[in-house]
UniProtKB/TrEMBL annotation:
InterPro entries: Cro/C1-type_HTH, Lambda_DNA-bd_dom_sf. It comes from the Bacteria. Residues 32-84 form the HTH cro/C1-type domain. This is Helix-turn-helix transcriptional regulator. Keywords: DNA-binding. PROSITE patterns: HTH_CROC1. It comes from Dyadobacter pollutisoli. The keyword DNA-binding applies. Pfam families: HTH_3. SUPFAM superfamilies: lambda repressor-like DNA-binding domains. GO terms for molecular function: DNA binding. The keyword Amino-acid biosynthesis does not apply. The lineage of its organism: Bacteria, Pseudomonadati, Bacteroidota, Cytophagia, Cytophagales.
């Protein structure tokens, strides 16, 4: 059981896109890409299939999106997940 916990924890820190409470080691999507397109939170939420409130939680760092949702966001902005979400460099 110990190796499983180590592997799971490492994956969460490495990817930084674990659904649920944040770990404090990620730099979150802050809405910059959305604002460059002059989209409201409701506009982007509609494109990626979430509520406006859900998107607000992502932008404020209260919720970390699933990998699938992060990939949808990257596709909408024609970029990569790594551009939208990054690990904190101080952790390395």
């Amino acid at each position: 059981m110990g190796i499983w916990w180590f592997t799971a924890g490492f994956f969460i820190l490495l990817v930084g896109l674990f659904r649920g409470k944040n770990t404090g080691h990620e730099k979150y999507y802050k809405g910059r890409a959305r604002k460059k397109k002059n989209w409201t939170q409701a506009d982007l939420a509609k494109h990626i299939g979430v509520s406006r409130q859900g998107l607000n939680s992502i932008e404020t760092g209260k919720f970390i999106p699933s990998t699938l949702l992060a990939l949808r966001m990257a596709k909408v902005f024609n970029t990569t997940v790594e551009v939208l979400f990054q690990l904190d460099d101080a952790e390395f």
